[in-house]
UniProtKB/TrEMBL annotation:
SUPFAM superfamilies in UniProt: (Trans)glycosidases (SSF51445)
Molecular functions per Gene Ontology: beta-glucosidase activity
UniProt-recorded name of the protein: Uncharacterized protein
Organism name: Aegilops tauschii subsp. strangulata (Goatgrass)
Similarity comment text for this entry: Belongs to the glycosyl hydrolase 1 family.
Family annotation (Pfam families): Glyco_hydro_1
């Protein structure tokens, strides 16, 4: 498959059973829509999160999940650790899809560490906004859920940060977009 189109009913059935089993045990499920698991077809089609078109497919996927599970799921997370994915996957090349600049890391085969993390971050924010908009306009009356983006990165104020203050301030400022969505 090309990663879009017909829904995998076996997958829907599996998650329906899982959600029902959790609820039967008194456990409220928290569903993360993207936790570093982009289908290979979409990785190939869009070069991962580098193509703006992935935003629409992600929103459609989220709507499918809202329609199938929203009557029981009250807590949704759009993207888990987008900052980490952007930096580790498209700058340092340490996580999937392993992209980075050859000039920075000799083991890199493709990528541009100077631009790709920012493109990916931008597309994550757009995807979160599209999913949030779809939820608010089409599903809020039915679902009544929370729907944040999750950035688990933290920025302690170490002594070293005080000595290189501009660097740390820039890092904190760059991360503020994740917290404002």
């Amino acid at each position: 498959s090309d990663g879009v189109g017909q829904v995998n009913q076996a997958g829907i059935d599996h998650y329906n059973k899982l959600i029902n089993a959790l609820l039967a045990k008194g456990i409220q499920p928290y569903v993360t829509l993207y936790h570093w698991d982009l289908p290979q077809a979409l990785e190939d089609k869009y070069n991962g999160w580098l193509d703006r078109q992935i935003v629409d497919d992600f929103a459609e996927y989220a709507e499918t999940c809202f329609a199938a599970f929203g009557d029981r799921v009250k807590h949704w997370i759009t993207v888990n650790e987008p900052h980490t994915v952007a930096i580790q996957g498209y700058d340092a090349g340490l996580q999937a899809p392993g992209r980075c600049s050859v000039l920075l890391h000799l083991y890199c085969k493709s990528g541009n560490s100077g631009t790709e993390p920012y493109i990916v971050a931008h597309n994550f924010i757009l995807a979160h906004a599209a999913v949030s908009h779809a939820y608010r306009t089409k599903y809020k009356v039915i679902v009544r859920a929370t729907i944040p983006i999750d950035d688990a990165d933290s920025y302690p104020d170490h002594v070293h940060c005080r000595t290189v203050g501009n660097c740390c301030r820039r890092r904190r400022t760059g991360s503020s977009a994740w917290r404002s969505t």
